[in-house]
Amino acid sequence: GNNLQITVSDNGIGIPRELYEKVFVPNFTTKSSGTGLGLAISRQIIEGAGGKIWFESVENTGTSFFVRFPIAKHGG
Question: What would the DSSP string read from start to end of 19-41?
């Protein structure tokens, strides 16, 4: 209808439930390298544009990230 939604999925190990609240926190990472800023910055940009980002994950199956933006209506 009035939204554009993008889904990015993987078939990795998933995200443990105890880490869900930290996924979008700046400087949080499960990797041995990196800054842990990517998802925090992405969330800020997406929400600043009126969108929403969230994820669903199943351990040992994979994770899907969803990004939804409202479709702008142009007059004319």
Answer: GGGGTTSTT--SSSSS-S-HHHH
| Distance separating alpha carbons of residues 9 and 3, to the nearest angstrom | 19
CA 63 to chain centre: 10
Q: Which amino acid is at 8?
A: V
- For residues 19, 24, 25, 26, the Cα torsion angle rounded to the nearest 10 degrees is 130
For residue 7, the Cα-to-chain-centroid distance in whole angstroms is 9
pLDDT tens per residue across span 25-62: 999 988 888 899 999 999 999 999 999 999 999 999 99
